[in-house]
Each structure stands twice: as C-alpha cells, then as structure tokens.
Amino acid sequence: MKKFLSLALAVLMLFGCVAMLASCGDDAKVKIIDIKLTDEEYAYLIKKGNTELQSDFNAFLAEIKENGEFQKIVDKYFKGEGTKVGVTAGDLNAANNDDTFIVVTNCPFEPFEYVGNDGKLYGIDIEIAKAYADSRELNLVIKNLPQFDPIFDQVEAGLADIGMAGITISEDRLASFDFTTAYYNASQKIIVPADCKDFDDCKTAADVENILKGLKDKSIGYQTGTTGNWYVAGDADWGYDGFSNVKAKGYDTALDAINDMLNGNIYAVVVDEAPGTAMVKGVNGN
Q: pTM of the full predicted structure?
C-alpha cells in the first residue's frame, strides 16, 4: 500500500510539474516572438577619417578576442559568469582632450549598456570601453545620452571619440561615419502582449511579415533612429519596405514603447533581439 501511495504521489507530482511548466508564462505581461526578422552586425561608431582611432581600436578588439577577454565579457552578460564591472556615468558636457576617451551611449539597451541598481553603467560595450581606456592609460568618460540619435551628432562634431550602443553597420551610415570591425551579429524581433496569439503559427520571417502586412488600424513602436525604426517605417537606403498599413510610432527607448504597448496604445514593438529579450524578462519579473 505504501508503495502504491508513493507511486501515486510521484505521478501527481509529475503531472503537477508539467502543469506548472505549461502555465509558467501565465503571469507574463509580454513575450518576444522567436523569429529573426533581419540579419545585422554591430560595430562601434567613429568620426569619418579618424583612421588612427579606428586602427588602434580594431587592434584592441583583435587582441581581446585572441586572448579570450572578449568572450569573458560576453559570458558575464549572456551566461552570468564572472563579476560585472560598473562605470560611473560621466558629464554630458565633458570636453575631449588627449588624456580622455569619451564614449557616447544610450541606455537602456541591456546587455550592451544599461544602468544598474547602484546607478553605475554596465554592459558589454561599457566593459569593452573600460578595458580599452585602461589599456591605453586614458581617463574614461561615458556620456549616457537620453536618446539614440544624438550619438551620431556627438561623434560627428568631435564631442566624443566613439559611439558604443549596439549600433548596426549600414551603407547609409558608412557614407558619413567610419566603424570598427564588427563584434556582434544581431537581428530584429517583435514583442507583443503575452495574450497575443497572432504569431503562434509563424515559422519564418515571411510568416511574421505577412501578419504585419494584414494589420489594420494598428500602431507598431520602436526606438527612434534604430534599425527597428527603418524596418517598420521603411527606408530605401536600408533596404526595408516598411509597413504602410500600420502607424509607425517612435520612442526615446524601446522600453518606453513596451510600456506604451502595455497601456494599450500600440499593437507591438520591434527591437533588437538581445536587448528585447532582456526587456521582456525585466517586464515579466524574471
């Protein structure tokens, strides 16, 4: 009898676990559709013609990739391995000089750059910036701008040495700026409310796009100036047709867009895969 009860209890526990797994997302607010919509490369933004910095930073990237330091930094943020290093944000009005290395970024864009609970800046780009400044014995100043677009203005005006914010290389941007070698392959994905079932049967990017093309009276959000912007609104230089049947709505950050979606004001959000995944976890309290 004891064996029977033990077996019955084990079966009940097994089914209970299955039920828990099946319902683990029941309290989720948002979800990311696990289909890559684009194929991109991130690199660091440098003023056109600054070949000295471009060459030196490329040499630094090659060095840390070869000695394993680059992978260690990446693993901190994707695998939770190692101790993350935070940097205090610098003065937005800091002047450039020979002793400083000024970086412009835009948070939140976890895991590449974000503000930690202690108020310091963290992320893959932040730690790479610190490692470079330390190796060249430079004073690191990181300007965390409230918007993404001004990063380009700051670099072009010489108010910063480099832009580090998960910036996608494109022919359009290459016409006005130089880039370091690529350091990360990225893509856009779509985020929707957790109870949205419109994309449940989608298998490919074409499937997702067919759903988007069939929408009526819907708005889709994105962070202004990012690839998500051009993907939704359309841009010939980027090779994106966009979706003329929806209202394209820009926000200072993708997180602002997600929050507006939760308020029922927009249908979905298009954002870079890794930051989008981190935002979904944060919003859902994971």
A: 0.84
